[in-house]
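Researcher: I'm preparing a figure for a lab meeting and need a structural model of a single chain. I don't have an experimental structure, so a prediction will have to do for now. The sequence is pasted below. Please return the structure as tokens so I can convert it later.
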Amino acid sequence: MSTVQAPPQTIWIDVSTSWKNRDGHMNGTLRTERNYACELQGLMPERLRLCRFQATRRRFAAVEILPDLRRPVRTAQREVLPRHRENKPKPHVGRQLEQIVRRWRRSTATAAFGAIDAICGGAQPFPAARAGDVLLLAGENWNGYDFATLRLLRNPGKMRIAAICQDLIPIKCPQFFEADGFLERFRRYLDFLIGQVDLVIVPSAQTAKDLADYAREHGGRYGETQRIELGHDIARGGETADIPDDLARMALEPGKFVLSVSTIQARKNFDLLYRLWRRCIEERLPDLPKLVLVGRAGFGSADLLWQLDHDPLVRDCIMVRHDISDAGLAWLYRNCAWTMYPSFYEGWGLPVSESLAYGKFCLASTAAALAEAGQGLSQHIDPLDFGRWHDAVVDLVRNPARLASREQDIKARYRPMTWRQSAEKLGAMLLRLCDKPADER
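Model: Understood. Here is the structure written out token by token.
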């Protein structure tokens, strides 16, 4: 008599960050979640499913597709947008009421589920999953989750959990983050990582070290840590030789601008770039390229954006764009003179990797993992050393042959890592975790 073989365990990838960011604002964490979800779907369609966390119901639910973020790009009326985003007007009274109701629902739902847990022995935190399945948390794992629910999932004999930890920057550099409970929430997330997660994936040796240091100071590590380099490629489907519509108003000439890509916030050190370009303009440096800053406005950016909008000296030389399509970003990388990334701390540094992927030289800071991302092909400078940054910019402007030599070096030595290659490594790790016998988990 033949026995019926149970179907293989499922690997679930949580795409809650994509669901929460359906306004199209892309950042490194969202790009990581979406790229891994898309690539893993192609690599293991029979084993992979998508899910998201429903905060008010304190449970995970299966979803069939990723939300579509490809909405029409909101075109700015000016190249440098109006500033003081942090001092924006208060929402309409109807919007305020909606926010109050949502907070009330969330709090009452949490209390109600707590009562149900006490009476019924716990609500089902993931009805669609089976014991032995693996859940991958790939997005903003520190935000919006109920860690008690996650602990219920991974009790012995239940699911295994893997999580991508991009960095420990809020612990290493708390001065760059708003208080309002965020730092305490992030610490709870780290305590969950080191105490409950079976597999933590990090993008760099620096993040692995930071996590190990934190675990050593907080009782040790439960699971294992593995490093997987993030992909360097941007979605290429919409690439075109012509300038995309969302960039047409900027009137950029290929090779005549420098690019810096990141959320615009204090940690990214964009103030340095503003002061550099201002100094070079004051010095009347011939052939100074325009500076293009691409990224949404983040915490601590209001003062810088205000200065950029109101400083007549840089008005025509520094451009800021908050909303750029993948096709637009690819065009900017492909046509810039070089890139810059002066951040104070990074767990990897996707803009450095992406710059190299397009054959473009990058001036980056010496901070944390940026040298790893640079592969020895970027120039790294102390983020506080204004003089050296100034000299490096002047040298690149005055010596185009030296820049061309740098690009030839990148062409000869750059080691690519696509999102598909990165996902293959991640998928193999998840399968090993999923297929382990129960007594080895």
